[in-house]
Every structure is written in C-alpha cells, then in structure tokens.
Amino acid sequence: MKQQGFKIICLIILACIMVFSGFANESTVNFETRILETFNGGSDSQYVWRTQASRFITEGFPRTTFVDAWPISAFGNNRDGELLRSFGINGRFDRQGYNWIDVYPVLASDPDAGPYEIPIPGKVINMDMWVWGANLRYYIEVYVRDYRGVVHNLRLGEIAFPGWRNLRVNIPTNIPQDRRTLPSYAGLSLVKFRIWTQPVERVDNFYVYFKQLKILTNTFDGLFDGNDLADPANVDRLWSN
C-alpha cells in the first residue's frame, strides 16, 4: 500500500511539472517595438504608397506627395538631423457621404506588380501611427489579413483633431496568429489603410498626413525537440537533398 501510494504521489508531481512547464512556455514573451514604415519616402523606402477612391471622387484626386513636415512631439525640431518627411494625401469628393480613400503599398523594387501586403513579424499586440488631421469628422481603418486569407478591418481612430496625434489599435485575440499544427507561427500582413468621410462633414478639399507606422509584437519562438523540422525553409532544404 505504501509503495502504491508513493507511485501515485510521484505521478501527481510529474503531472504538475508538465502542466507548469506548459504554462511557463506559453507565458514566455519577448516584446519588441518594430517600425513597419517610416513614410519618409526616397530611395531608402521599400514601398511606394498608392491610393484608390470610391465613386464621387473629383477628377484628378486623390493626390499624394511627401512633405518636409513631421510631429515635433515625437521627433523634435530636427533642425540638424536627418531629413524627415511625411506622406500626404489630398482628397476631394463631389458629394458628401460615406466616401473613402484607400492607401496601399506596392514594392518599390517592382511597382508594376500591383498591391503588396507587408508581412508583420511576430505575434502583434498593437499597431500605432502618427496622423495629422484637420479636425474633420473622418476616421481611419487598417486592414490586416490572417493566414487563412481572411481580411479584418480595425478602426485605427477618429481624426477629428487639429494637428498631429498618435493613433493606436489593439489586435483582437479572435484574429488568429498561430495554428494548432506545425509550423504554428502564422503572422498577419498589412493590406491597406482606409480614410472614411462621414455625411455630416465637408469633403470639398482636405489633407491627411501619415508618419511612422510601428507595432508592438511578441517575437518569442518556443523551442522544442525537433523544432527545426517545423521551419518551412529548413524542410525545403532537407527535402531538396
């Protein structure tokens, strides 16, 4: 009886160790801040930003350019530093309503290939961007795609404020960023931004500026015996031999 009781206690202890080890692995994080896009333009940029608008857009609009302006509260006056610029969108519609302008990236190295979705590293927690608004009752959405191909639109925030403000959105937990099967990592990709006007607001001529898109992400990659066989690049190399 004593020997059987000792075995039961050992099994309980072993089970507790396995459970707590699993919790420890799940709770291990490595939070990092990553800049996805500076919106500085120039030859150093990986992306070219283009626009597409809904119906009733005035002919010749939207217009875009990079301007020598930035949020001083984030970057200071920068009088003697590196050149800082921001991406500007000038819109105009012929009618009030729920009009929109999409802002999407293409690869600077292959601009004729069409829209490009920017890979988001790690398991992203939130996303933020500096936006200049003219106190108009508009709002901005960000669109991300998960590994299943489903596109999710998240409300980045209202731009009914004067000047620069940092807008932030948390990534909901119901948007999957991993799989049950290996390889488990399944990151998101950035599809586009959408600027929405509202019927109560004027749309005859307006400007919006973007600066520095960044994310807070968990880049921890749990190790296990045989994790190299869950790396698609390594698997391709092994099977090619």
Question: Could you characterize the architecture of this molecule?
Answer:
- The strands form two sheets. Strands 1, 3, 4, 7, 10 and 12 form a six-stranded antiparallel sheet that branches. Strands 2, 5, 6, 8, 9 and 11 form a six-stranded antiparallel sheet that branches.
- It is built from three helices and twelve strands; from the N terminus they run H-E-E-E-H-E-E-E-E-E-E-E-E-E-H.
- The radius of gyration is 24 Å and the shape is elongated.
- The protein is of the alpha+beta class and about 240 residues long.
- It has helices at about 1-25, 70-75, 230-240, and strands spanning about 30-35, 45-55, 65, 85-90, 100-105, 120, 125-135, 140-145, 150-160, 160-170, 190-195, 205-220.
- The chain has one domain: Sandwich (Jelly Rolls).
- The termini are far apart.
Order of helices and strands: HEEEHEEEEEEEEEH
CATH overall fold name: Jelly Rolls
Q: Which shape, going by the Cα principal axes?
A: elongated
- Separation of the first and last Cα atoms: 57 Å
Query: Strand tally, please?
Result: 12
Given helix and strand content, the structural type is alpha+beta
Total count of helical runs of at least 4 residues? 3
Strand content: 35-45%
Rg from alpha-carbon coordinates: 24 Å
User: So what's the CATH class?
Assistant: Mainly Beta
